[in-house]
Design goal:
The protein is of the alpha/beta class. The chain is built from nine helices and twelve strands. The chain has two domains: 104 residues, ATPase, nucleotide binding domain (Nucleotidyltransferase, domain 5); 171 residues, Nucleotidyltransferase, domain 5 (2-Layer Sandwich). The longest helix is centred in the last third of the chain and has 25 residues.
Length: 312
């Protein structure tokens, strides 16, 4: 029996699951607190993995989903906000040595993309664009049934596509990136700036309105809240037009917390997309879908990565 161990290095939890190849559900799953600022994170991760190991069974491979930046070719986490002590940390090699099996590492957004393609909303498609719109904007791309990684393994940082050269400051330190406009953080910053400039809103008086509270205000008809989501949709449309020109997918899958407020931004997004596409052929048959896998995307992506590597 072939055993795959999937690992998800999350912001609050370390999770591991054991799968048998071809079976949809895990045979075991375990989690523990990440404790980003505490030492000995690798030991905690090993304990989580050990908790899901079937007795007397050999592990065929381990797959790991983690935020980056990281080098998937070398299996090294260069740095990650989820675990502060992991600087240029050879996670794949350490796991491989500890469990006597090959271990593979990849960016969490890329693996959410891979998971949606293999198990979720993108099943049956050969060319897929995935965007997770949450605190930031991440992405992944499948081209002809292969995950696009790039020379250094750093491809498809789609949230850091420049939409407006002199635009608002992005969390990465550059200006005008898609993430600065269309992420939850971008929506929050825009509302805060407008209120500080004197705009009227039911959100005025809140110390720091969240994307969720702004969405609730928009649903109640607050003009500024509605505008903030329409603005995010407009710039998302510009970004996706660029991505269609680059990758020509048959489906775009939207995940992340902001995507769940689709009714607030989708009309603006679709209008912006249609205005900026260079030919209607790009939109012919294009599916615009919501992600299907939710919290399981990291584990299922890590599983898909390990199975892909084993079979390639």
């Amino acid at each position: 029996m072939s055993i795959i161990i999937a690992i998800d290095v999350g912001g609050t939890q370390l999770r591991a699951a054991a799968y048998t190849e071809g079976q949809p559900e895990p045979i075991a799953i375990h989690k523990a607190k990440t404790k980003a600022n505490e030492p000995n994170a690798f030991d905690r991760l090993v304990t989580v993995v050990q908790a899901v190991l079937p007795k007397n069974q050999h592990i065929d491979a381990l797959g790991v989903s983690s935020p980056g930046p990281l080098d998937p070719h070398a299996g090294v986490i260069m740095t990650t906000p989820n675990i502060k002590e992991w600087l240029n940390f050879p996670l794949a090699a350490k796991l491989s040595e500890r469990f006597n099996a090959p271990a593979y590492l990849e960016n969490d957004a890329n693996l959410a993309c891979l998971a949606e393609w293999k198990f979720g909303a993108g099943r049956g498609h050969h060319n897929l664009l995935y965007l997770t719109i949450s605190t930031g904007v991440g992405g992944g791309v499948i081209i002809n049934d292969l995950l696009l990684q790039g020379h250094h393994g750093l491809a498809t940082e789609l949230g850091h596509t420049t939409i407006q050269a002199d635009g608002p400051l992005c969390g990465c330190g550059q200006r005008g990136h898609l993430e600065a406009f269309s992420s939850g953080t971008g929506i929050e910053r825009y509302v805060a700036e407008q209120i500080a400039a004197g705009r009227a809103s039911m959100l005025d008086g809140q110390a720091a309105p969240s994307a969720q509270s702004i969405a609730r205000a928009a649903e109640q008809g607050d003009e500024l809240a509605v505008e903030s989501y329409q603005r995010a949709g407009k710039y998302l449309g510009i970004g996706v037009a660029n991505f269609l020109h680059s990758f020509d997918p048959s489906i775009v899958v939207f995940g992340g917390g902001v995507s769940q407020s689709r009714a607030l931004w989708f009309e603006s997004f679709e209008r912006s997309l249609k205005e900026r596409i260079i030919h209607p052929k790009y939109l012919e048959g294009l599916v615009l879908a919501s992600a299907a896998l939710k919290d399981d995307a990291g584990l299922l992506g890590a599983r898909a990565l390990a199975e892909w590597k084993l079979n390639s």
